[in-house]
Specification:
Layout lengths: L14 H12 L7 H8 L3 H13 L4 E4 L3 E4 L8 H5 L11 E4 L5 H10 L7 E4 L20 E8 L9 H16 L6 E4 L3 E4 L2 E13 L2 E12 L16 H5 L5 H22 L2 H10 L4 E8 L4 E9 L5 E5 L5 E4 L3 E4 L2
Parallel strand pairs: 3-4
Antiparallel strand pairs: 1-2, 4-5, 5-9, 6-7, 7-8, 8-9, 10-11, 10-14, 11-12, 12-13
Length: 338
Amino acid sequence: MRNKPIAGLPGTTDRRIDALLTLLAENSTIVISGAKVAKEIGVSRQQVWRWIQKLRALGVRVQGHPRTGYHIERVPDVLVPQMLGSRLHGTPFARRIHHFFKIDSTNSVAMRLGESGEPHGAIVVAEEQTAGRGRAGRKWASEKSAGIYCSVLLRPPIPPAHAPLLTLLAGLAAYDAAAEDLDMHADIRWPNDLLVGGRKFCGILTEMRAEPDRVHYAVVGIGMNVNQARMPDQLADTATSLRIQTGKPHSRLKLLIRLLRHLDRYYNQFLSDGAAPILRRFAEVSSYFKGKRVHITTATESFTGATAGLEPSGVLRVARDDGRGIVSVLSGDVTEAS
Ligand code: BTN
């Protein structure tokens, strides 16, 4: 399956690097000569050598040189279209995969793609982001080749009032994907912070363009800390990675494939059966669903209370401590209160 590059999207990974990586990965048990590689992908041996150096800089363990030939030690953990697409058959995410070695923000690219008519299911993946964005205008630290930085373009036939459910279901998909790699319990802090050991390892930023009664497109951006050996100092108390938690590296490729397959499943379930199954699953896996002591900070106020379930639209209900009853929290920062 080939992904056609689209006009006006500068900086996407050269498809021949993708082909080179796939060729090496598919022949991982043998040494493959530089001449053969060059012929198969249609470039000079010097170009193959330059690209091999680039892949090595990303942590791909390629042995050899142009004269003797190349050999890859194990399936490389690079999220290029051929490696992903061939494992996503049967989902809408296999067809249009836009990969960047380095980009400002995958969400920004996906929003531009949404505007230019790119179809439902297109995904944007990067090895590194220079201006990764988090919720509430925060930055998302996006170290090279350490995390998953992926944005999914959706064109859901729903009104914007139901869009928070997209964020919830993406959080559930990320939760299910990560749970397989964790031997400890993870949690979801409403709406979609994934926590393990009380620290955040995954966040979701949903952006969209909509009219009052319909969503034109939504971009669900997922950032997961996977193989960071340590988090930046200013985040160390609140953030973690799967590697820090488990003491071993994890395959970003396998995690992202699982995540997108779960996303496909939850999304289809949402379209066919509505919000109920999503809310039920959230109640199963999130300690923040009901009875959790929380501190809420919205754009206009701060208060403490206890969570009291979700509304059908995915909005959080909180019973306030100050006697002002149960309120609905549309958006805001939620932290555990003592
Ligand atoms: C949060 O604040 O919890 C949301 C973080 C979302 C980060 C992801 S990384 C991929 C995508 N591109 C971005 O710029 N942000 C999202």
